[in-house]
């Protein structure tokens, strides 16, 4: 994007905010009319029918007559949804290098700084307990290593990846297939709020745009595009997560896969990726070394067995027979409820326990190895 485009950021964002407009149509308008301001004037004058049907062009014209570009940007910022356009400082550097980058990004929270390296963690919506624990474990360690964990905020592996990064007080970015203000899926409202507060929610779609089916393949190209590599944790042979790896490979990014159980349909896609040359993830160091960032970062150690306090051991022992809530754990371990909650929080961050439905905690595979 040239310098004149930066000077006309407001018009470019306004173009991207027109109802139903596509990247291709925006590109055609810019080519035909020379600049965002020229394209915006053409829309206002009713001359955009050359790139769209008459009805859609009329809709755009009606919208443009009610929208002042400069005021529109200020209105979005007042709602906590700033924008960044290609060529502008703050636009994700790697994303700008892909074949089809978005003209503008609408976001909530704070975009990763230019010096922060990003890596995507994606996988099945219908994840198994193994997949969820693996995604949380990988994301937690990547976040501790100083990387930003990128995913799509979907059910299953995506949500687990975001949670893992947040557990480590690290950075995470959720790329949506709808407007950045739209809560989707609905049950992830709390998680999205946490991500917006401690990380970033971003989209190429303006506020209010619903999650349409064809938005998600386009969303996947952004997940891959802003990342050094993509880690797949559980994916069936037809999983949408594999589209993200296709985008990654087409842009020369690395692809990794966590090996899965041979009898699980959810592992057919990941095991096929490994068979076809994807990096096998046996530890997070496998990812960091392949990306050549291991020498730059020191990974904090997980809690070693000898570092467990007597109270933490009692809490883990209380879970040996199965999931329990904090009050039950406190009673079994002879602790006050507040003390038990504090210990459980520390052990959850360390990956030793996980809180499930109903606030009941259970042991993770990592704690059973200690």
How would you portray this structure in words?
The chain is of the alpha/beta class and 370 residues long. It has 3 domains: 1-78; 118-296, Rossmann fold (3-Layer(aba) Sandwich), CATH 3.40.50.450; 305-368, Winged helix-like DNA-binding domain superfamily/Winged helix DNA-binding domain (Arc Repressor Mutant, subunit A, Orthogonal Bundle). The chain is built from 18 helices and 11 strands. The chain has helices at residues 3-7, 9-16, 23-33, 36-44, 54-66, 69-78, 93-96, 129-144, 157-167, 189-198, 215-225, 241-250, 268-275, 284-290, 310-318, 326-333, 337-349, 365-368, and strands at 83-85, 104-109, 118-123, 148-151, 171-175, 200-203, 229-233, 254-258, 279-280, 353-355, 361-363. Strands 1-2-6-5-4-3-7-8-9 form a 9-stranded mixed beta sheet, sandwiched between helices. Strands 10-11 form a two-stranded antiparallel sheet. Strand 8 (254-258), helix 13 and strand 9 (279-280) form a beta-alpha-beta unit. Helix 8 (129-144) runs parallel beside helix 9 (157-167). It is elongated. The termini are far apart. The model has no long low-confidence stretch (mean pLDDT 90).
What does this entry show, briefly?
The chain has three domains: 1-78; 118-296, Rossmann fold (3-Layer(aba) Sandwich), CATH 3.40.50; 305-368, Winged helix-like DNA-binding domain superfamily/Winged helix DNA-binding domain (Arc Repressor Mutant, subunit A). Helix 2 crosses helix 6, helix 8 (129-144) packs parallel to helix 9 (157-167) and helix 15 (310-318) crosses helix 16 (326-333).
């Amino acid at each position: 994007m040239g310098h004149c485009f930066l000077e006309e950021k407001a018009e470019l964002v306004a173009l991207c905010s027109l109802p139903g407009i596509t990247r291709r149509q925006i590109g055609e308008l810019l080519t035909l009319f020379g600049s965002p301001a020229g394209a915006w004037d053409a829309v206002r004058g009713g001359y955009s029918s050359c790139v769209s049907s008459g009805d859609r062009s009329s809709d755009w014209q009606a919208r443009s007559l009610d929208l002042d570009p400069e005021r529109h940007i200020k209105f979005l910022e007042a709602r906590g949804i700033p924008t960044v356009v290609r060529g502008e400082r703050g636009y994700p550097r790697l994303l700008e290098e892909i074949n089809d980058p978005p003209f503008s990004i609408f976001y909530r929270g704070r975009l990763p700084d230019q010096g922060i390296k990003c890596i995507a963690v994606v996988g099945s919506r219908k994840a198994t307990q193994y997949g969820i624990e693996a995604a949380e474990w990988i994301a937690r360690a990547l976040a501790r290593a100083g990387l930003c964990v990128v995913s799509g905020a979907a059910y299953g592996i995506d949500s687990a990846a975001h949670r893992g990064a947040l557990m480590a007080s690290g950075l995470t970015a959720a790329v949506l297939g709808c407007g950045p203000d739209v809560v989707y899926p609905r049950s992830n409202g709390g998680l999205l709020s946490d991500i917006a507060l401690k990380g970033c929610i971003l989209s190429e779609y303006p506020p209010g745009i619903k999650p349409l089916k064809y938005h998600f393949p386009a969303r996947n190209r952004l997940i891959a595009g802003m990342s050094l590599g993509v880690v797949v944790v559980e994916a069936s042979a037809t999983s949408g997560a594999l589209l993200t790896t296709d985008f990654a490979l087409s842009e020369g990014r690395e692809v990794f896969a966590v090996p899965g159980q041979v009898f699980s349909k959810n592992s057919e896609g990941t095991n096929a990726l490994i068979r076809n040359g994807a990096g096998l993830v046996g530890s997070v160091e496998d990812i960091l070394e392949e990306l050549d960032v291991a020498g730059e970062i020191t990974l904090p150690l997980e809690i070693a067995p000898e570092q467990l306090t007597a109270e933490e051991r009692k809490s883990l022992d209380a879970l040996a027979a199965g999931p329990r809530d904090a009050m039950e754990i406190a009673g079994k371990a002879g602790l006050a409820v507040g003390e038990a909650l504090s210990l459980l929080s520390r052990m959850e961050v360390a990956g030793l326990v996980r809180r499930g439905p109903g606030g009941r905690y259970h042991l993770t595979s990592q704690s059973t190895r200690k």
